[in-house]
Amino acid sequence: MRKFTLIIMMVFTFSGLTIAQTIEDFESLKMNLFSGGANGSITVVPNPDPTGINTSAYVSKMVRGFDGDPWAGWYATLPTPIDVTANRYVHVKVWKPRISPVVFKYEKDGANSGDVFPLQEQTLVNQWEELVFDMSIVSGEYVKIVLIPDFLTPVGLTEDITLYYDDLYVNNDPAVGSPAVQVMEDYETIPLNYMGGGAEDLSFFTLLANPDKSGINISDYVLKFHRDKDGVPWGGFWSALPVPTDVTDNKYVHVKVWKPRISPIRFKLEGGAAGTLELPSSNAQTETGVWEDFVFDYSEKTGTYPVIAFMPDFEDPLTLAEDIVIYIDDIRVNNDPNPMTPPEQIFNVDMSEAGLAEGQQVYIAGSFGGIHGTWSEPGTNPNNEMFDTDGDLTYTISMAIPDGVIEFRFFKGAGWDGGDPVSGGNRMYDVSGSFNLTYKWGVEGIVAAPSIQFNLNMAYQISIGAFDAETDYVDVAGSFNEWNGDNHHLTAMGDGMYSITIENLVEGETVEFKFRKNGSWDTSEFPGGGPNRTHLVAAGVNELNLWYNNEALGIDEDNLNGKIKMYPNPVNNELTVKITDEAVNRIIITSMLGQVIEEIELTSETTTINTSSLNNGMYFVTFITKDGNQLIQKFMKK
Description:
This protein is mainly beta. The chain contains one helix and 42 strands. 1% of the residues lie in helices and 42% in strands.
């Protein structure tokens, strides 16, 4: 998942909203190997030579097959673009068993950097050495990087070799050892300090590839705890976090654990002003040999905590007859007391205009990893075949993909020749949990995914001095953005109106959301006195016209000189609207949740509206003038 040394997403929760703060997920940049030979591989491992310029704990290891191509290497898609104009130099530390050329590249359609060699060639073997690349041949932003660490033609190997590299970063300084401006990847985790017994306790922690990508945990890397039979009941780790964790609004700590036996699990927060608290998990362990999500309830605490401790096998006294191995992953804080469930991840592709031959199969290939492989050739991996289950020529596949940016392509038939001819090359998507996406063969972008256009009226908030249109902003946070509205600010449209469109939703899904002033939960709305707004997503564009907190400007008939009359109110079956002001040419009826019920173009002074099918409750009528001004009245259906 997108992180450098550590990502802490400082987000907040309100009224049962689930918002994650990641303490550690043990993931690194997703590196995609190419042309590495039969035994080629790439993994993150403990630093085999923590000396000289590189004493870090973890590095990336590449096995370079003797039968691989000269250009064997890897590519990755960065979660955050690199601005090459501002930071032209790329730095990388390498450890190699032989002298050979090293190449770095930036790539994007029509603007590849081509092969760039370091300013000073490699001079050392079996030692760490920093190489610097001047990438000024290109400019602007790039997200795709390529590293070819052993570009010798011919390859000239009789056996596989192992290369290591670390600390990829950019700056505007060609000097070796100059400070980073932006880190691409350093492969590090939070500091882990073992809590153990005496000399006989040989327990240890290490990072390794996830040995069981299934169920709730399909991530690439996890933490391995080798638990010595001569250890102590509280054997585990403590960590002084680079950024303290905050339990003011997020009350529940979650940790995924894979264990070979059932035993108590405990978590501790230390160093906060509200006092230390060690807890057992709220949910008991029920299985062995599978991933389970354990939850720890810190609702009695508040504030920040700089130290955590985790004890995954708290049996007292310890009765092990032999060493065991436990795996740990995804330490998060949110406001959800429930253990997580596996994500639902679905790709659909509309093949109705793809010219499929009768019986021709459809596949997907990409940088998925796991059971789907990394660019598995179409037809060679049965996990990547898509199926048309209802005869509408839309092919579907359910997948298991770790979070992060992926590239992929659809294919007709086996082999690489039948690739989707969509412009722009490979498709890209930033995976974050569940998704249900529909594409069309040969058409760029996500097709036919529903969207919601939020049109929010802040006129009442402005009129009472609770919102300054010049200095304040409004955002929307909801289930569609993990309740983080930081990147979903509404655009001011004038006359107190604000708008934003949320795309790539799922038809039939119920979304929850709230509007917030200046990104604060302290000033978020409570429409109708309830915690969240909800909307059932329909196909196409869902247009919602809303007032902040459902507080509309009251319209007094006297102020309109009797030009607008609406009766009876409350109403049963028919509502009569009489308007003698020719400037009003349209009305919109909306529910309290903002769903548009009916839009009416006015062609006469008196309009009768059939309300018999409406559910009982409050509704808004928006009167819209020719110049776009809006006036609001309410009516009650009984």
